[in-house]
Amino acid sequence: MIPPPSVEKAAVLAAFFFGNSYISRITNQRTTMRFLTAILSLLITIGTARGEGYTFLGNCTSHARNGATLTLTATNNVMRITVIDSATVRVQVGRDGRILDIPSYAIDTITAPPAAWVLEEKPDRLVMRLAGGIVEILKSPLRLRFLTRTGAELCADDSAFGHAWDGHEVMTWKRLDPSARFYGLGEKTGNLDKRGNQWVMWNTDFPAYGVEHDPLYVSIPFFIGVVDAGAYGIFFDNTYRSVFTMGAGSRRTYSFGAPDGEMTYHFFFGPEMKRVITHYTALTGRMPLPPRWALGYQQCRWSYFPAAELMDVARNFRTRRIPADVLYLDIRHMDRYKVFTWDTAAFPDPPAMLAELRRMGFHVVPIIDPGIKVEKGFHVDDEGVKRSLFARHADGTLYEGEVWPGWCHFPDFTRPDTRAWWGAHYARLFDQGVAGFWNDMNEPAVWGREMPTTVVFDDDRRNSTIRKIHNVYAHLEARAAYEGLRAHAPDMRPFLLTRAAYAGSQKYTAIWTGDNVASFDHLALAVRMCIGLGLSGAPFVGADVGGFVGSPSPELFARWMQAGVFTPLFRNHTTINSRDQEPWTFGEEIEDNARDMISLRYELMPYIYTIFREASLTGIPMMRAMQLEFQDEPESYRWDVQHQFMFGSSILVAPVVNEHQYFQKVWLPRGRWLDPVTNDVHDGGRFVTVDAPWWRLPCFFRVGSIIPRRAAVQYDNASPLTELTVDVVAGADGAFTLYLDAGDGFGCQRGEYDEIAFAQNATGSSLTINATATQNSFAADIGTHIYRIRNFDGLPASVTINGHSAIAAHDGSRIPDRGYHVDAGKHMLVVRVPAEPALRIVVTR
Ligand code: GLC
């Protein structure tokens, strides 16, 4: 049977017969459009026209420039293009001639100074020239092209479709460049490259999700497109259930749209992927620098219960000398799952327990679920009912949904008073001694399915249904918690972890990837998901190490711990009734390996903390896709390279993600790479195969890099950093600026931090290392620097420190101050120096 034609088909056919300019000229009047549709339907097909379908944006009839804004009047609608900064424009398409200007939940305020741009008018087009790129506006019909500064096409509307609407539905179609690859879209399964699939933004609780399942907990309607001309980004700031069809079912277009809301998107010119992320996060916000303890190892399970079990886990870490900073309390710590309560039989004295754990160096993070048990006399519920802080049905009655505590009320986080009240509850728990908060079930999840569409939220008096608020529910909860804690304890950096999120949530919270599975496929998926989140502006992410549902084999656990070392959030978690998953429960060999791996994380903390700080300033994630760091090297995009990544720009990590695989094939980009375990140096620009017995994590240091580290500690603040070790990977010039501060608080924003700029330069037969304190207001306790010049063979002819000869030491374990030692086996020259504001070490051969 021939399907009935829609207006869309009719319009396309009309365009085919009469040409685009004709069709767009006549589409300016809806009546004409309907008439045309009917005629075409009759002419071209057998069947009945639906009489509904897309209206495509018609011809541009006039334009007006006003400051940063260019308003384009079309025959049947209006479009507005606003210059946000030198490399970002916002595109808004009205509905029936009116731009709705729906306020954004992702963007707070635009801080960028107004960017200069030039408007050129040509008979068939308008051209907007920004410092970072060009927007070309074709007039008949009104279609957009986005070009690099030099005029190469990054992205263009499909010439027939472009932008359209159908009732409340809004859509955009872009031409699918044959070379296009797509990255980002937040927490997504599948391959790192999102091309060839359709992706839905609808925060969804799906326990034990499959490796292709979509959608999941987080909605970030932002992606990076990479074509031959370079990279660009698009952020479709629409909170409804949007759909991204990235060249799936069609090789002509890719598209994005939503059933309601506004067609508002931001376009970011690259052409560097990093630049796209920097501009996207300038708009939606960046991860604030977390407290340093949150970068340590974290241990969770559903549930440590009662208090004695939690204390026992804590003691095990310390007596077994396995470093750890964070312990979690899952839902059983509460009185019948009632939020902000304690089960006082199992946890009789929470402040005393928390204080004891703090003395042992642990920070405790309890779970928070937004469902509040409907119960008269339960103070949280009473307060919310009395003050009208809960979500309601359209008829004004309170909505009740069922989750862990039974039937529950749900806070209406769109209301500022609800957010302030919610935040104050966090502050009260904080005062009892908990250190951070774990926001779960905030998609929001309710048993059975999801909140019915009769549920409405205040939404600044717009009374919006759950259809609009669903995807930002968790985002607003995180905002409530973050703002509440900041106001309550101004000198504490909040640590929040969330399951659900929206674009911009990175400025409040870390994200974990929900209820994954203890399988190798999921280990691989966790790597891709975390990299994908980083490309989507959310750098502080992690997956449940070991897997949540089911129980890992010892080998899987070991491999996952290895990958966890270089995942921004390093948290082991498992479900109720699974086998124990603490590092010592798999036998001595696995425990030893886990200890080594976790210790490596703590040894690298000076480097790790510095790249977190960088991310907080630039948005560039710590865990980086290979193509983010090596955009011009085609191999970085290969599917068989998608599980290796860069941690900062110095360390390449290639975790083994397959069972019984004891070697690893690794793509090494151009340059040279040191294997820090074997001390082999490999030429880059090729694949290498290295041994990877179950206990070894394949990773490589970029030759030329400088990686500051320290002796491992049992927890972040166990002892001050007095001796700084600096791995200088010789063989190419390079630099690194180390960042140090108190590890918590906001003194750093008042300049209370230290920076040491390290650089290595080789000329002729000499290697010079400079270390200069460029900022010195925190006064770290570092008394000694130990330089480990790696990839160093033979004996030096001389070693000088600030012009004075250093002393050769024969015993590597006892190098005196201003002494050096050659460790031939490790291809390493070790120099020990008392810290000074400016150090210059010159090694000649
Ligand atoms: C959800 C969370 C999981 C938690 C469990 C019990 O499934 O995703 O991490 O352990 O609820 O609170």
Keywords:
binds alpha-D-glucopyranose, 845 residues, eight-stranded antiparallel β-sheet, globular, alpha+beta, 55 strands
Task: Characterize this entry briefly.
The chain has 845 residues and is of the alpha+beta class.
Explain what the structure shows.
This protein is an alpha+beta fold and 845 residues long. It contains 15 helices and 55 strands. Residues 1-51 have low confidence and may be disordered. Alpha-D-glucopyranose is lined by residues 207, 302, 330-331, 367, 440, 499, 514-515, 573.
Level of helix content? 10-25%
Structural class: alpha+beta
Based on DSSP secondary structure assignment, what is the total number of beta strands? 55
Low-confidence stretches: 1-51
Write the layout of secondary structure elements.
Elements: H1 7-18, H2 20-26, H3 30-44, E1 55-56, E2 60-66, E3 69-74, E4 78-85, E5 88-93, E6 117-121, E7 125-130, E8 133-138, E9 143-147, E10 153-156, E11 163-166, E12 169-175, E13 181-184, E14 198-200, E15 218-219, E16 222-227, E17 230-236, E18 243-245, E19 253-258, E20 263-269, H4 273-284, E21 298-299, H5 307-319, E22 326-329, H6 350-359, E23 363-368, E24 372-373, H7 379-386, E25 392-393, E26 401-403, E27 406-409, H8 416-432, E28 437-439, E29 455-457, E30 464-465, H9 466-469, H10 473-488, E31 496-498, E32 501-502, E33 510-512, H11 520-535, E34 541-542, H12 554-565, E35 571-572, H13 588-603, H14 605-618, E36 623-625, H15 626-629, E37 645-647, E38 651-653, E39 663-668, E40 672-674, E41 681-683, E42 686-691, E43 699-702, E44 706-709, E45 723-729, E46 734-740, E47 754-763, E48 766-776, E49 784-790, E50 798-801, E51 804-805, E52 807-808, E53 819-823, E54 828-834, E55 838-844
Helix pairs in contact: 1-2, 1-3, 8-10, 12-13
